[in-house]
């Protein structure tokens, strides 16, 4: 089993490739890897409970670890209580911790 | 043993939210007591340009001091000071060709000039590397 962390800055509403990036994370999880996705910048937008995005909802339901960057949420006036289920909040510390643990860290 | 993390970055100052996220990552790395190495290429070589200048905002009626316009060269200098205070290393190399293209040869102290072999050396010797690409 490998450990992957994706820094997800792209969002599916403006970047068509975001859905493909979600699929990669889901596939890695399905193959038994430990996968974390940290949502940053506009990447946090589909995490809002009222956001309509089936591709993101599939990501959130896949069993991987999903973290929304608190700074990016605050910039967009999104409260943690407004997030969909299975999403916690975090910071760049989560990315650095993964790097220091030797995980594969990938910027999307 | 202190670990070293390498970052490769190509975004210019003042244009992308990625630049802010990038600096947040560098700060977090130092707070986790990691040595930091940066290879800046393409537009990112201007992050350390010494002649960046703050300005006021006439529309909002603020002078230069009141506007407190952030400059990336100052953020780099602040990170250099933080690293030193923690007993860590903070190395910064700009891609020389990218610097020449943009005419931003004057950089703040502590930032050097190099090329792709330096990125290879940085990545090869680091505990981990993150490349932040521009789409």
What's the multimeric state? heterodimer
Describe the strand arrangement of the main beta sheet of chain A, using strand numbers. 4-3-2-1-5
Q: Strand tally of chain A, please?
A: 5
The chain-level structural class of chain A is alpha/beta
Q: Name the CATH superfamily classification of chain B.
A: DsrEFH-like
| CATH structural class of chain B | Alpha Beta
* Number of helical segments with 4 or more residues of chain A: 4
3D architecture notes:
Chain A is of the alpha/beta class and 108 residues long. In chain A, 33% of the residues lie in helices and 23% in strands. The longest helix of chain A is centred in the N-terminal third of the chain and has 14 residues. In chain B, α1 links the parallel β1 and β2. The longest helix of chain B has 15 residues. In chain B, strands 4-3-2-1-5 form a five-stranded parallel beta sheet, with helices on both faces. Chain B contains five helices and five strands, in the order βαβααβαβαβ. The interface between A and B is medium-sized, with 21 and 20 residues.
């Amino acid at each position: 089993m490998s450990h992957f962390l994706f820094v997800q800055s792209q969002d599916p509403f403006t970047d068509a490739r975001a859905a493909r990036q979600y699929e990669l994370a889901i596939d890695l999880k399905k193959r038994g890897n430990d996968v974390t996705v940290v949502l940053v910048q506009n990447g946090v937008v589909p995490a809002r409970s009222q956001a309509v995005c089936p591709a993101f909802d599939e990501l959130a339901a896949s069993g991987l670890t999903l973290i929304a960057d608190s700074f990016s949420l605050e910039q967009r006036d999104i409260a943690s209580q407004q997030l969909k289920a299975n999403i916690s909040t975090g910071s760049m510390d989560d990315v650095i911790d993964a790097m220091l643990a030797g995980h594969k860290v990938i910027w999307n | 043993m202190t670990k070293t993390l390498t970052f490769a970055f190509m975004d210019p100052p003042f244009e992308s939210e990625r630049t802010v996220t990038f600096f947040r990552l560098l700060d977090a790395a130092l707070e986790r007591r990691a040595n930091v190495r940066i290879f800046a290429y393409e537009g990112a070589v201007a992050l350390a340009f010494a002649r960046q200048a703050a300005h006021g905002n006439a529309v909002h009626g603020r002078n230069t001091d009141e506007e407190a316009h952030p400059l990336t060269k100052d953020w780099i200098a602040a990170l250099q000071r933080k690293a030193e205070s923690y007993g860590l290393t903070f190395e910064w190399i700009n891609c020389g060709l990218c610097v020449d293209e943009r005419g931003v040869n004057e950089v703040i102290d502590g930032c050097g000039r190099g090329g792709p072999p330096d990125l290879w050396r940085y990545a090869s010797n680091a505990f981990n590397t993150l490349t932040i690409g521009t789409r």
